[in-house]
Design goal:
By secondary structure, the protein is of the alpha+beta class. The chain contains 4 helices and 2 strands; from the N terminus they run H-H-E-E-H-H. Helices cover 64% and strands 12% of the residues. Helix 1 runs antiparallel to helix 2 and helix 1 runs parallel beside helix 3. It is elongated, with a radius of gyration of 20 Å.
C-alpha cells in the first residue's frame, strides 16, 4: 500500500513537471516557427495516461501476486507482516517507470534552461521543493 501511494504521488508530481517543461520546450524551441496550441486538457490527458499506466500496473500486481502472512519477531512476541514473493520485481518495474519519467523531466529541463523569460523558470524551484 505504501509503494502504491508513493509511486502515484511521484507520478502525479513529476508527470506534471515534465509536461509543463515539454510545453515550454515546444513553444520556445520551435525551429519551424509553426503555430500550434497545447491545451490544458491535452496536458491533463497526458498526465492521466501516465497515471493510468501506473495504476494499471499496480492493479495487475495486486491481482496476480500471492500475499502470504509471516511472523516477524518484535519484542517478546511477533507481529504479522504480509509478504509477496514478487515484490522485488514489482519494485524494480515501478522504479524503472519512475526513472523514465525523471529522465524525460531532466531532458526537458535541460532544453529550456536558457529561456530568457523569468516567468517560465519556476520548474527549478518546483523540482527542488
Amino acid at each position: 500500500v505504501v509503494l502504491s501511494f508513493f509511486t502515484i504521488g511521484v507520478v502525479l508530481f513529476f508527470a506534471n513537471l515534465a509536461l509543463k517543461t515539454y510545453r515550454i520546450d515546444r513553444i520556445f524551441n520551435n525551429d519551424g516557427l509553426a503555430v500550434f496550441a497545447i491545451s490544458n486538457y491535452e496536458l491533463l490527458a497526458y498526465t492521466g495516461t501516465l497515471l493510468g499506466l501506473q495504476v494499471i500496473a499496480l492493479i495487475i500486481w495486486g491481482l496476480v501476486t500471492k500475499v502470504e502472512p509471516s511472523v516477524v519477531p518484535f519484542g517478546d512476541g511477533g507481529v504479522f507482516m504480509c509478504y509477496s514473493q514478487s515484490w522485488q520485481t514489482v519494485v524494480g518495474v515501478e522504479y524503472s517507470y519512475l526513472l523514465l519519467i525523471f529522465v524525460f523531466t531532466a531532458v526537458f529541463a535541460w532544453r529550456v534552461r536558457s529561456i530568457p523569460m523569468s516567468e517560465y523558470k519556476e520548474s527549478k524551484q518546483i523540482f527542488l521543493s
